[in-house]
Amino acid sequence: MTLSRKAACNTHGQDSSYFLGWQEYEKNPYDESNNPNGIIQMGLAENQLCFDLLESWLAENPDVAGFRNGGESIFRELALFQDYHGLPAFKNAMVQFMAEIRGNKVSFDSDKLVLTAGATSANETLIFCLADPGEAFLLPTPYYPGFDRDLKWRTGVEIVPIQCTSSNGFRITAPALEAAYQLAQKRNLKVKGVLVTNPSNPLGITLTRHELTLLLNFVDAKGIHLISDEIYSGTVFNSPSFVSIMEVLVDRSHVMKSELRNRVHIVYSLSKDLGLPGFRVGAIYSNDPMVVAAATKMSSFGLVSSQTQYLLSAMLSDKEFAKNYIVENRKRLKTRHAMLVRGLRKTGIPCLESNAGLFCWVDMRHLLTSNTFEAEMDLWKKIVYDVGLNISPGSSCHCVEPGWFRVCFANMSEDTLDLAIQRIASFVNNTTSSSENIDGYSRHLSSKNSRRKSSLANWVFRLSFHDRERER
């Protein structure tokens, strides 16, 4: 059987080291009892720190968990066909939760919300709505490796990188934006928009108000769209606090009256903030009624089940629970983040200063044998196979500097994270010791060679001196 060109297209990104690391983990997964020497999964951005809060709420609300209302079963009602616009109660609960995460500094209209089967579906749907095959979106580097699949594979849209570097903490700058736009034009690509993740995956930092204003000014001047992927907005655990792109729009009332507001769109999900990736709940929020209408039609290819919507609408409508969950989730993320940063620092490995997310952007440039991506891959393979940790190399995130890695910390127990830190510490110590031995031996050889060269030089000098004496 011959596959279609689309099905056989290799732009899915499945051969990226980001996904290959997962495959190696699945062959040899760590288990405290059954496989203590297995690979620890540190390449998966899952939030497992607050499952006890979710499970406690379910236990306290058995009617909801059992799909009952007032003691009466509503299973049959939920099992039957539902309109793809989504349950109104759930959409209302979603926009309230989104506002709560943002400190209620901005409100959302449920009529402008489109439900999708996760953020993956939301991002792809938006790209389908806004761009044609062969057109382009600009993305700041480093960026989530899955975007090569989500944004490009089926849509035929191209990604042009906005090159950000460690020199300024990987912040977005006006020259970098313009350079990316010019690069797209040189490649004869029509730029339809910019997509950013805020907070950033993989950097774990929130975009500053200055960067958000810069982005708005840029897309306004170019007449293009801005997609703000805010699926990590509830994971901000340190200052500065999270600023949504919608908050910046509201603050600029003169902009809100212009057509720019219709070209700014938000992607959201409950996968990270609520730790429910398996529930497949994502959303698009847009002020443009045409985008909302088109995305709603497209959402029929990836709906959220009625049962999921019913359960989560009840959970998120419990305002006391939602508020307490957000606070406790941030507290636990902060503690776990500090544990990883502190452990790595003791081994001499620094991290980019971050305030959000489920991961750290880790600087291992000093462990490379050379400043090349080949050396980065060599180091990554040692960490996966020899150390037993699956982490994501910066090259899989399109980082322009070799030696950076994304390391996740919220998808495991505290004991497992402690073991992971011990493993990396042992590796670094052994690597450092080996380097020192090699350097010491090299210095010994160098010194020995220097003495030999000095003796040879003296011998040559004496010989030439005697030769000159004889010539006289």
UniProtKB/TrEMBL annotation:
Residues 40-424 form the Aminotransferase class I/classII large domain. Keywords: Ethylene biosynthesis, Fruit ripening, Lyase, Pyridoxal phosphate, S-adenosyl-L-methionine. Coiled coil: none annotated. Its EC number is 4.4.1.14. SUPFAM superfamilies: PLP-dependent transferases. Its cofactor is pyridoxal 5'-phosphate. Pathway: Alkene biosynthesis; ethylene biosynthesis via S-adenosyl-L-methionine; ethylene from S-adenosyl-L-methionine: step 1/2. It is an enzyme of class 4 (lyase). It catalyses: S-adenosyl-L-methionine = 1-aminocyclopropane-1-carboxylate + S-methyl-5'-thioadenosine + H(+). GO terms for biological process: ethylene biosynthetic process; fruit ripening. GO terms for molecular function: 1-aminocyclopropane-1-carboxylate synthase activity; pyridoxal phosphate binding; transaminase activity. Belongs to the class-I pyridoxal-phosphate-dependent aminotransferase family. This is 1-aminocyclopropane-1-carboxylate synthase. It comes from Sesamum indicum (Oriental sesame). The gene is LOC105158571.
